[in-house]
C-alpha cells in the first residue's frame, strides 16, 4: 500500500524555543471567570467572518468551532447505542464517517467499538489495526468460530477505541452464511453475547458501537441492520447523491417489518462537501428538504487531511485534530450524542 512518510515532530527543546507555562502553572492562576464565560469571551473577541476573504472566513469559523467544541465532554448514553453505517453507493464516506465519529467519541473517554463488516477492511486500516488474511476477524465471528471478544483489538491511537477487524476472508461470508442457521442474526447474537461477557468480566459498558458496511445490500449488510437500532447514512454532496437512496430506505423498511422492528434511520450526514460550489449547496438543501429531522447540521468538507489520515493508520481526529475536517466530525459526533440524550429524555417522559 502507498504510504506517505510521517511528518517529523520537533524536539520539545531546541534553540530559540519560547518556554510556555506548564498546565499546572496555568491551572494555579487565580481565575474569577467560569469556563462558559471564558469561552464566550474568547468567541466574542474574534473578528466576524469576512465573506470577501474565504480563507480568513474559514479560519475564523474553525477557531470559533474549536473553542465551542473542545471544552465540552460527551455524555455517556443511557445504554449502548448501536449504529449501522450504510449506503450501498460506493465511496460516499461510510468508512471515513464510521472511524472519525467513533474516534471523536472515544477521544473524550467514551468506550467505543467499531465492527469492520466490509471485506475491504478500510476501517481496520484507518484504526491502525493489522488485518492480513487469517487474522481473527468479523468473518470468524459471523461464522460462529470464535466469540467476539477473541476478535476485538484496541485501535492504534486511542485506548478506549476498539475494533473487530475485517479481512478479505469476509468476501466469502456472503455465500457461506446462506446455509447457516439464523443467517440474518449472526452478528446481532455475537454482539449481544459480547456485551454480556464484558458485563460479567466487570469491564466498562460500551457506549457506542459502529458497524461499517460494504457498498452492497447483501447478507453482510442485513446482519448489520439486525444488530443495530440506528442507521447512519452518509450522503456525498454530489450529483446523483439521492440516487439509490429509495432502494436503501425500502430495504430498511423490509428489515424493520420482518427482522428488526427497532431499526430507525436516525442520522444522515452530508459528506465531502465542496462548500464553494452551488451543487454542494443544492444537494444539501434537497437532502434537508426530504429528511429535515435526520440530517445533522454539521457538514463534512472535502479535505486532504481527512483523505491522507488512513495512510498513517489514523483517523483525522488524531492525525490533525485542529483541521476543518476533524472539527466537522467532532461537531457531527456532538450532535449525534446530544440527539441521543434528547431522545432518551423524550422516552422517559412518555
Ligand atoms: N471529507 C473527505 N474529504 C476528502 N476525501 C474524503 C472525505 N471523505 C472520504 N474521503 C475519501 O474518499 C474515499 C472514499 O471514502 P470512504 O472509503 O470513507 O467511502 P466508503 O463509502 O466507505 O467507500 P466504500 O463504499 O468503498 O466502502 C476515500 O479515499 C476517502 O479517504
Ligand atoms: Mg468503506
From TrEMBL:
<comment type="function">
    <text>May play a role in septum formation.</text>
</comment>
<dbReference type="InterPro" id="IPR025669">
    <property type="entry name" value="AAA_dom"/>
</dbReference>
<feature type="domain" description="AAA">
    <location>
        <begin position="81"/>
        <end position="264"/>
    </location>
</feature>
<dbReference type="InterPro" id="IPR027417">
    <property type="entry name" value="P-loop_NTPase"/>
</dbReference>
<dbReference type="Pfam" id="PF13614">
    <property type="entry name" value="AAA_31"/>
</dbReference>
<feature type="region of interest" description="Disordered">
    <location>
        <begin position="1"/>
        <end position="36"/>
    </location>
</feature>
<comment type="similarity">
    <text>Belongs to the ParA family.</text>
</comment>
<protein>
    <submittedName>
        <fullName>Chromosome segregation ATPase</fullName>
    </submittedName>
</protein>
<dbReference type="InterPro" id="IPR050678">
    <property type="entry name" value="DNA_Partitioning_ATPase"/>
</dbReference>
